[in-house]
Amino acid sequence: MTATALDPHTALVLIDLQSGTLGRGLVHQPADIVARSVALANAFGENDMPIVVVRATGTPPGRTEYSASMPATFPAEFAELHPDVDALDAAVRVDKSSWGAFVGTDLHGELSARGITQVVLAGVATSFGVESSAREAYDLGYHVTIVLDAISDSQSASHDHVVSSVFPALAELATTAEVLSLLDE
Question: What predicted TM-score, i.e. pTM, was given to this entire model?
């Protein structure tokens, strides 16, 4: 479903816009993803709506082939936010060691304390951080909007599958221009 409205209490959540994820060879240009995310953040700020910046600093503790090949804590340079994202006046900053932004963090408490009922998600990777955060937000009862031209993945097949099969069940979908238009209403 295309995004039709933004709740009066909506937060923008930018996921994993950092050196280690932006430098992994994304389907869409990292510079475009960052530019659209910053444009969204600027508009949210102008409307006095909260901006959340999330970054991955480690991996979950479960035993999988994936986690066995990844360090429990990422090197500092991996977790460095893109300078344009780091410069944002974010209401909340979240460091996470799981794929999603909510599990194992205080994000839900921070948003609840602000009366937030909807989250708008942008960032990387579509099939990891963005999808997991969307699922968690949905399960917690938030209205979820995914900004399709402000997300990307390292694999086209994964990105396309999540966008076409998973996100429509969890969220309203929009472009950056459509969200910006909704903010102007």
Answer: 0.92
